Backbone:
């Protein structure tokens, strides 16, 4: 009976040792998985940052183009107003001269 107990306790020690190694392997695999997820997360963040930079560049170019167009429209309107004033002044002078 004593021998039987010894085998059982020895088997228990071997079983717990096997579980300890399994836990170590699981921990190592979990750490590797965590590192891989961190690397993937950093890659995604980098891609988002690149896309954001490109979007900002595109918006800057669009805003610059809009500014040029509006500037040209203001110049056109100003030129038209000057010509209208000049024409009105000429018509008024020609009416007074007669």
Residues:
């Amino acid at each position: 009976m004593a021998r039987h107990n010894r085998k059982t306790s020895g088997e228990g020690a071997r079983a717990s040792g096997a579980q300890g190694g399994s836990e170590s392997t699981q921990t190592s695999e979990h750490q590797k998985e965590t590192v891989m997820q961190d690397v993937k997360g950093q890659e995604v963040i980098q891609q988002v940052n690149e896309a954001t930079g490109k979007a900002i560049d595109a918006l800057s170019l669009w805003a610059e183009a809009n500014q040029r167009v509006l500037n040209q429209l203001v110049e056109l309107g100003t030129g038209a107003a000057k010509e209208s004033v000049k024409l009105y002044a000429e018509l008024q002078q020609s009416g007074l001269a007669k």
About this structure: Residues 2-97 form the longest helix (96 residues).
